[in-house]
């Protein structure tokens, strides 16, 4: 199925996003305007991104000691993205934006992610960076840095990890010391000098924009020069690659930020990934070493500022994963329709004299395509749902914002991890459908698989997502998030229970939900969190499959009313597949969680 | 755990391979001689293979129009392999062999597969080729071709697939026409001229050996020039790259075999993979075009000859997959012991002031290591078990050969597919343990993952293995294979049921076996094979996990008696993990098989 048609079905028929027009912020919203955005994105992605996706994989970024060289197509593609108007699409009209809901922004961006995730990363990171500044920066910081980013003049990064501190942010050791007497009064924000090394910084160096705005987590030492322990000592700083005047003009003076090296990756090769040295003295901005940075938000609130954006960033990662999956699904569907091989098995055996048939006629190929459809279209639906929650959170009254916020907190670990795992599996199935051809670089599916493998690692590993879900989200607000999610699921179950065609699925979902609630209780019944959380990743998997089953049932309810047969029957088949072949897997994942199985916790390191 | 120690435990304590010395062929066998072979392999693999595995990935084979260029380390490594004596290790003493059992040969080879699967492929293919000739060739063919291969002078290939016929061998279109009046009397075998294109030919062109012996499946046209339909028309031919005299001397005359191109792959890059044109007229051997080939076996019996070697070839693929998994397991275990990050969760929370700990102390890291151990050491055990079946089949009396042959037939689809799927998953977990570092090419685990992805595709895809298992193996000999396997499993269950520590696992295995038997019946109860086989891949998965649970329980029984604590407790922990976290998965796979779910079979192509 065409991606545009699928998006239109999900946005208009399933989510009914036009209803957002009831809210002042989205008053101008209608189908036609959203469709125009989608069509525009589809066209630009097809012209400027998709044709060059292999090239940016093959021609990896090179560092010549001075500059990072990228293929020219990257600059062309990001330029086209900027001209599309998508950078500021969801921003206030006052900032040059279209006040497009996030759900429509995500739908539009999905075309670029599907066409070339590695090139799309540059604008995606820039918008995330700008959104953080818009939420936590001073008026000046917004006007200088966020504005330049939303206009596409400067690009942005997020600098969290360090070589010795990946998932463990409390061990960040980059220091930020107040800079000079006048530092506190700097119009761009309280000024510091930063020293430290940041690892895994995507888009950390390139020549695509006239400046790069690094957002850096660092710690301010106490009077004795000691860094505060834990994450509470983290503060957030704007560290531009080139210094900037108070009027927002980029100068030619380099800040003390130096590229220490490029990481050479398995996939996602079109995005530079860097080790950056801050304040090692390579440059001497304003006459002395140390990277100049301007604090965002209060001292010690760095992680809080970051967390504010984390749900959105994680939904963004999930979207990338889903669209890599979708790209592989489309490619393998196309291949299966063209490629002739073998003959269908029939009750009377095979007629070896007959013509070979397109492989899509073989049951096992259909299975692999249907699984991809269930994984990728299901993931996309979940992500659109989450994006709409963000819209409702931002535009609703206090009660709605709180309620919808809790739901979003619950769903975020799944929105990030589930597509990362299952749309990667979809990419593997896409290779399998291609047979030997899929294993060659003459077809795109091996690249999708390599690219997608990143998504279980960055922006909080799979393990971290599991700990977040079982360790924090299900217990937060006295379990209110989980209760709210159950209420949503029960509403779907009720509706589906009344429709003959989906009654069986409704009953299965109801049973699975009850099982999950009971497992959650058992998991926490022992009083030893280390035992509970030893199986957090399995809980994440079980929970994720339950959420996707719910999403599929809800989507199927909308599909029933579709006049378009392909859309209706395709969605119903994928829903059926998910309930019959996927949902039963949760049993094996949840059992160990429920009994607080300590096999893994207890195994002695020396016995591994 | 050290791979050598593990092999010694599995060979001597678990399989008790010395008992093979009861048989005339293996009369000289003892622990010391096997251990010497293993240590020799370990040393050569560590010195000549492992250090160059990344290089052969980066410096892919290049075709300059005349020759295929490989990095010099490849020639050096295969030379060292030849000098190790492993090429002929399992052959008759009369052929210069050591009459080493296959099980010990596989154990020795596992070091090379773990060190560099891509370089090991050259000798592995050569031995497989020679074994086929020894089984089906004439005395002259053995003396000329097999001998040169076992001496490492000539290398071998298998040429089955064609661009239009991958899994569907009945569609092979390469033609073999009798060559001249004297063709039938050629001392090297009935002589033909072959014309056609062969795809995916590993080691199809290189300069590593003075000649290349292609074994080619082709069809002999009838008087009207028509090729017989189906696989029954296939015959097998020896097609050497350079012509050979009747005395076995390689001449400088090129046969009409031309490299049409190299395939550029996701992984396994150190092995050339080729499209070969036979008989297109690029060369004119003996003055006319057409590739000269010598028939092996009778006309129309080509596939039968191939099938004879298929079990062994598939066990070989499984071994490669298992050892790629093992390489990743070892690398991630090593990394997890060195890398410090985070602090263990304790009931009182975390002490952020404390030092970071090696990540192996985190429960989720232990889980990922234990899963890898369960997958890879379990797969290796299964493969050694299968290799021992081959030894018993070859050296036993007729009754034993028949019985053991049936068991081997049953287990082969699992021995090939299970490691291909689950040791690939192990490679993914190895990446995950490494975090971002695992996603870079500075660590070996991403290459293992890429290399291993091939194994679900070649030598019969995953789907083909499922069809073979459910469509052929469980029904062959009126179900006798399945009954024999059940008897083996029940023996293990009985033994384990009497040991307190493994009683629970014994009961679980017993229940799972009963479930599988019942599902097998239900699957075939409908009378419509297309419905039964629509879920054959899921049956393969369920069956595979059952087999591995059995293997683990049997291995654990031996481990109980081990004085070495690391060995004993490590194996018991992996067994426990497998039964608690893996075996329960079979439920979700087998349900659709049992009810002959037709969701995938029935979905309309247009709705995908």
UniProtKB/TrEMBL annotation, chains A, B:
Q: Which SUPFAM superfamilies match?
A: Acyl-CoA dehydrogenase C-terminal domain-like, Acyl-CoA dehydrogenase NM domain-like
Q: Cite the GO molecular-function annotations of the record.
A: flavin adenine dinucleotide binding; oxidoreductase activity, acting on the CH-CH group of donors
Keywords attached to this Swiss-Prot or TrEMBL record, sorted alphabetically, are: FAD, Flavoprotein
**Which residues belong to any copy of the Acyl-CoA dehydrogenase/oxidase C-terminal domain?**
354-467
In this chain, the stretch annotated as Disordered covers 164-190
Task: Indicate the transmembrane segments per the record.
Answer: none
Query: In what residue span(s) does the Acetyl-CoA dehydrogenase-like C-terminal domain sit?
Result: 488-603
Protein origin, superkingdom: Bacteria
- Gene3D superfamilies per the UniProt record, alphabetical: Acyl-CoA dehydrogenase/oxidase, N-terminal domain, Butyryl-CoA Dehydrogenase, subunit A, domain 2, Butyryl-CoA Dehydrogenase, subunit A, domain 3
Annotated Pfam families = Acyl-CoA_dh_1, Acyl-CoA_dh_C
Required co-factor(s) are:
FAD
For this protein, the record's PANTHER family field holds: ACYL-COA DEHYDROGENASE, ACYL-COA DEHYDROGENASE-RELATED
Q: Which family does it belong to?
A: Belongs to the acyl-CoA dehydrogenase family.
User: Know the name of this protein?
Assistant: Butyryl-CoA dehydrogenase
């Amino acid at each position: 199925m065409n991606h545009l048609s699928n998006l239109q079905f999900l946005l208009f028929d399933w989510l009914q996003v036009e209803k957002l027009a009831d809210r002042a912020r989205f008053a101008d919203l209608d189908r036609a305007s959203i469709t125009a955005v989608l069509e525009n994105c589809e066209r630009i992605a097809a012209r400027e991104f998709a044709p060059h996706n292999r090239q940016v994989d093959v021609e990896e970024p090179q560092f010549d000691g001075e500059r990072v060289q990228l293929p020219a197509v990257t600059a062309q593609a990001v330029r086209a993205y900027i001209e599309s108007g998508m950078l500021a699409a969801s921003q206030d009209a006052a900032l040059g934006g279209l006040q497009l809901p996030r759900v429509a922004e995500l739908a539009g961006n999905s075309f670029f992610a599907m066409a070339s995730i590695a090139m799309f990363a540059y604008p995606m990171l820039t918008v995330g960076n700008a959104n953080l500044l818009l939420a936590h920066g001073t008026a000046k910081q917004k006007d200088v840095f966020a504005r330049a980013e939303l206009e596409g003049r400067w690009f942005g990064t997020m600098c969290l990890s360090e070589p010795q501190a990946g998932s463990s942010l409390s061990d960040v050791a980059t220091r930020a010391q107040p800079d000079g007497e006048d530092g506190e009064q700097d119009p761009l924000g309280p000024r510091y000098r930063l020293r430290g090394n940041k690892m895994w910084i995507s888009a950390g160096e390139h020549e695509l924009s006239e400046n790069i705005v690094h957002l850096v987590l660092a710690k301010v030492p106490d009077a004795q020069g000691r860094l505060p322990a834990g994450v509470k000592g983290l503060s957030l700083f704007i560290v531009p690659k080139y210094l900037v005047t108070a009027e927002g003009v980029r100068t030619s003076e380099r800040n003390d930020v130096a590229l220490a090296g490029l990481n050479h990756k398995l996939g996602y090769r079109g995005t530079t990934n860097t080790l950056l040295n801050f304040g090692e003295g390579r440059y001497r901005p304003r006459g002395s070493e140390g990277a100049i940075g301007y604090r965002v938000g209060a001292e010690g609130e760095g992680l809080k500022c970051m967390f504010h954006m984390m749900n959105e960033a994680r939904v963004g990662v999930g979207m990338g994963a889903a669209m890599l999956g979708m790209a592989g699904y489309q490619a393998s569907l196309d291949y299966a329709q063209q490629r002739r091989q073998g003959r269908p098995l029939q009750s009377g055996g095979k007629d070896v004299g007959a013509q070979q048939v397109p492989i899509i006629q073989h049951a096992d190929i259909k299975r692999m395509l249907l699984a991809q459809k269930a994984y990728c279209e299901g993931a996309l639906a979940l992500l659109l749902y989450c994006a709409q929650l963000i819209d409702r959170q931002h535009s609703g009254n206090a009660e709605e914002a709180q309620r919808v916020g809790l739901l979003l907190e619950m769903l975020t670990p799944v929105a990030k991890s589930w597509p990362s795992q299952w749309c990667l599996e979809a990419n593997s199935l896409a290779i399998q459908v291609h047979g030997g051809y899929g294993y060659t670089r003459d077809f795109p599916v091996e690249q999708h698989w390599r690219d997608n493998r990143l998504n279980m690692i960055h922006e909080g590993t799979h393990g971290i997502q599991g700990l977040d879900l079982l360790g924090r989200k299900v217990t937060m607000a006295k379990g209110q998030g989980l209760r709210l999610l159950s209420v949503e699921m029960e509403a779907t179950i009720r509706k589906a229970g009344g429709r003959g065609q989906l009654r069986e699925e409704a009953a299965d979902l109801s049973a699975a939900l009850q099982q999950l609630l009971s497992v959650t209780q058992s998991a926490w019944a022992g009083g030893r969190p280390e035992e509970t959380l030893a199986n957090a990743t399995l809980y994440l998997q079980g929970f994720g499959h339950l959420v996707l089953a719910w999403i599929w049932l809800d989507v199927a309810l909308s599909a029933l009313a579709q006049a378009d047969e392909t859309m209706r029957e395709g969605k119903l088949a994928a829903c059926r597949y998910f309930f019959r072949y996927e949902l039963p897997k949760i049993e094996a994942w949840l059992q160990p969680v429920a009994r607080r199985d300590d096999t893994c916790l207890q195994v002695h390191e020396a016995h591994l």
